[in-house]
Amino acid sequence: METGLIHLHSSLRWIVLILMVVAIVKGFSGRNKNVSFDGTRKIALFAMISLHIQLLIGLALYFMRGWAGKWGTEGMMADKIMRFFTMEHMLMMIIAIALATIGYSGAKKMSDSMKQHKRIFVFYLISLIIILASIPWPFRGLGVDNWI
Ligand code: HEM
Question: By CB neighbour count within 10 A (0-12 exposed, 13-18 middle, 19+ buried), where does 1 fall?
């Protein structure tokens, strides 16, 4: 069960990254043109759903794998891997997911399609930068050596 969830969480990162990039590109290209927001809204929605699935799987792993119980324990901050999974990864990803969610719900309420595109572009770009910086990529030496 745990292994399956880790695998799912790990491979879903690519779906998240692809959907985020497409939403950002669509937001960027529509920010100065009077084009319909509908296509961008759908991609941004799928990106947000994939982020929320990551959040649910991540939270399950956080408790199942015992990271939650390590919060505040002695040596947590000194151990790079423990600090990353107990605190950094979880907090930064929650901030990134919240940003994309706020960006999407704000854009939905707007009526000017250029402003809607711009909002998706800005919020999703910031969110993606945080996500990229918070993924335990194999080259970061965090005990994760697989790309999928
Ligand atoms: C866009 C959001 C996220 C992405 C792209 C992402 C990506 C990843 C990746 C690639 C791994 C390494 C998996 C492996 O060992 O192969 C991982 C591990 C982990 N993630 Fe996330 N994550 C996200 C959000 C979250 C959130 C919000 C939480 C917690 C609330 C979370 C909790 C965890 C935990 C606990 C592990 C370590 C599992 C273990 O014990 O090995 N993740 N994540």
Answer: exposed
What lies within 8 Å, CB to CB, of 18 at 6+ separation is none
Its pTM stands at 0.96
Task: Name 71's Cβ contacts closer than 8 Å, sequence gap at least 6.
Answer: 86, 87
Crossing angle of helices 89-109 and 38-64, in 10° steps, is 150
Q: What atom in ligand 1 is closest to the CA of residue 144?
A: 15
**Ligand 1, pocket-test mutation among 49, 89, 130, 145, most atoms within 8 A of CB:** 89
Q: What is the 131 CA–ligand 1 centroid distance (Å)?
A: 10
| Residue in the block written with tokens 């990529």 | 137
Q: Which atom of ligand 1 is nearest to the CA of 61?
A: 35
84-96 residue pLDDT tens: 999 999 999 999 9
